[in-house]
Specification:
heterodimer; A: alpha/beta; FAD/NAD(P)-binding domain; five-stranded parallel sheet; 7 helices; 20 strands; about 25% strand; elongated; B: mainly alpha; about 45% helix
Chain lengths: ~350, ~110
C-alpha cells in the first residue's frame, strides 16, 4: 500500500472523528461531505442526551481537531475503482484521489414523516417532527408551534418498527429523544400537559432510565401505551389523536395544540450506489452490511473498505464516535499489513 | 326529531384532554411515588386479593390517571403490603392505597 490518503465519505460525527484519529496516526484523511457543513444531523440538533451537551459545541470541538485534514464540502463521490493496490476515486468537483482505503461514514436519513399520512405531517398546522423541534430549540422559528400549548403529544415509532412503511427495525434513539424533548417542552411550558404515545419504551443506554423516571416524577409527563392510529384536525386547528390505551383496553382521544412525530432513522439513499461502486454489500434493512454484527462491524466484505457510524444501522452519538475510532485503527492495521 | 327507531350511543372513548384528574392530583401530593408507575403489573401479580376480587394497584393507578372512580376496586384491598415489596420502582403502594382511602374519606 503506497497511498496514505484515506477517503472518508461523510462529514458527520463518524467521519470527523475517524479523520482526526487517522490524521493522528499519520495518514492523510480526505472528508467528502455532500452538504455545506460538517457535523451531519448532529449539527442541526440542540442538546444531546444523556448529558444535555450542546450539539453545536460538540461539533465545534470535533471540527477543531481537523486541522490538516482535507475537507471537501458540497462534494460527492462520482466513481470509485479498485486498483491492484488501493483505490482510484473521482469526486464531483473533479478531484482525483489515489487512496489506500475507503471509510464509509455516510450515515442515515430521517424518515419522511409525511409518508405516514394518517398523522398529517405537512397537512395539519400543528404537526412537527423531532428534528423540527430541535431546529426550533435552536432558532425559535417555527410557526407551527403555538405560543402557550396546553396539551403537547409525542408519537413514538413514526416510520420505525413499521413493515408497511418499509422500515421494520427499531430506530432505537427516538424513545430517549422523545423523553428528552418531552422534558424540554415541560420546562418551556410548565403549565402544559405532555403525552407520550408509545408501543414499548426502549431505554437501553446509560442514564436513559433516569430520564424516564425524571419525566414521570419531576415533570409529570404522561405515558400512554398504544400506537396512535389516526390524527385529525378540528375547526380551531387543533390536532385530535386517536389511540387505544392498551393497558386499560380503552379507546382514548386527545385534543392537542402540538403534535411531535418521532421520525425514525433510515439508510441513506446513496447507500446502494456507494456500495455498488466498491462492490460492498447492502444488508436486508437497507444499511451497509458489515462482515458480521458482533466482531467486525467496521469491516465490509471487501478489503480496504470500512464502515463507521449509522451507515450500518441506527446508532447513538457515543456509539458512532466509538466506531469511528475503531474504524481508524482497523484501517491502520489493514494498511500496515496487520489486518 | 324524526324517530328512526334507534338511538346514537355516546362515544366510550376517554378524552385525555378532558379527564377529571382532581383525585389523581391529590394523590400525587400525598404519595408522589404514584407518578413513577410504569404499569409493569408486578403489584397485581402478587396481590392476594386480586384473583378473586379484581383488585389491582396497577389498574387503580391507571384508572385514576384516566379520571375514573376506583373506590369499588379499592374496597377489596386487604392492606397486606405485598405489592410494596415487589414494586421495582419502590412505590409505597400500601401508603398509596391508604392515601387514596383518606382522599375518598374526605370527599364524603
Amino acid at each position: 500500500m503506497d497511498s496514505r490518503i484515506i477517503l472518508i465519505i461523510g462529514g458527520g460525527v463518524a467521519g470527523m472523528e475517524a479523520a482526526r484519529q487517522l490524521f493522528l496516526l499519520g495518514y492523510q484523511p480526505v472528508i467528502v461531505e455532500k452538504s455545506d457543513h460538517l457535523g451531519g444531523h448532529v449539527a442541526g440538533w440542540h442538546k444531546l442526551f444523556p448529558d444535555m451537551m450542546s450539539a453545536s459545541s460538540l461539533i465545534e470541538t470535533m471540527a477543531g481537531g481537523l486541522d490538516g485534514v482535507t475537507v471537501y464540502l458540497k462534494t460527492t463521490v462520482a466513481t470509485m475503482n479498485r486498483l491492484t493496490s488501493g483505490f482510484s476515486v473521482v469526486l464531483s468537483n473533479g478531484t482525483t484521489l489515489l487512496c489506500g482505503a475507503i471509510l464509509m461514514a455516510s450515515g442515515f436519513r430521517l424518515f419522511d414523516a409525511s409518508r405516514k399520512e394518517e398523522y398529517g405531517y405537512g397537512v395539519y398546522d400543528h404537526v412537527i417532527t423531532n428534528s423540527d423541534l430541535e431546529h426550533w430549540f435552536n432558532t425559535g422559528e417555527d410557526d407551527r408551534i403555538p405560543e402557550n400549548p396546553s396539551h403537547i403529544a409525542f408519537v413514538h415509532c413514526v416510520g420505525s418498527r413499521d413493515l408497511k412503511a418499509g422500515n421494520p427495525q427499531c430506530s432505537k434513539v427516538c424513545c430517549m429523544t422523545a423523553i428528552k424533548q418531552a422534558i424540554e417542552m415541560k420546562e418551556k411550558f410548565p403549565g402544559s400537559e405532555v403525552w407520550c404515545f408509545y408501543m414499548d419504551l426502549r431505554l437501553f443506554g446509560k442514564k436513559y432510565e433516569d430520564f424516564y423516571i425524571n419525566a414521570q416524577r419531576d415533570h409529570g409527563v404522561h405515558f400512554v401505551r398504544g400506537r396512535v392510529s389516526e390524527v385529525s384536525e378540528d375547526i380551531d386547528g387543533k390536532v385530535i389523536l386517536k389511540a387505544e390505551d392498551t393497558l386499560a383496553g380503552h379507546q382514548v382521544k386527545l385534543k392537542a395544540d402540538l403534535l411531535v412525530l418521532m421520525a425514525g432513522m433510515l439508510c441513506n439513499e446513496e447507500t446502494p450506489v456507494l456500495a455498488s461502486m466498491v462492490r460492498a454489500d447492502v444488508d436486508s434493512d437497507g444499511f451497509m452490511r458489515s462482515r458480521d454484527n458482533i466482531y467486525r462491524i467496521n469491516e465490509s466484505s471487501r478489503p480496504g473498505v470500512f464502515f463507521a457510524g449509522a451507515c450500518t444501522g441506527t446508532k447513538t452519538v457515543p456509539e458512532t464516535v466509538a466506531e469511528a475510532r475503531a474504524a481508524a485503527l482497523d484501517i491502520h492495521n489493514y494498511l500496515v499489513g496487520n489486518g | 326529531m324524526v324517530d328512526f327507531g334507534f338511538g346514537l350511543s355516546k362515544s366510550s372513548a376517554v378524552r385525555l384532554d378532558q379527564v377529571d384528574l382532581s383525585l389523581y392530583r391529590k394523590l400525587e401530593v400525598l404519595e408522589p411515588g404514584v407518578r413513577t408507575c410504569m404499569s409493569c403489573g408486578s403489584c397485581s401479580a402478587t396481590c392476594t386479593a386480586g384473583p378473586w376480587s379484581g383488585m389491582s394497584v396497577r389498574k387503580v393507578i391507571l384508572n385514576l390517571q384516566r379520571g375514573k372512580d376506583v373506590s369499588a376496586m379499592m374496597q377489596n384491598c386487604m392492606l397486606c403490603g405485598k405489592c410494596s415489596m415487589v414494586c421495582p420502582r419502590g412505590i409505597n403502594t400500601r401508603h398509596l392505597i391508604l392515601s387514596l382511602c383518606r382522599i375518598y374519606g374526605e370527599r364524603k
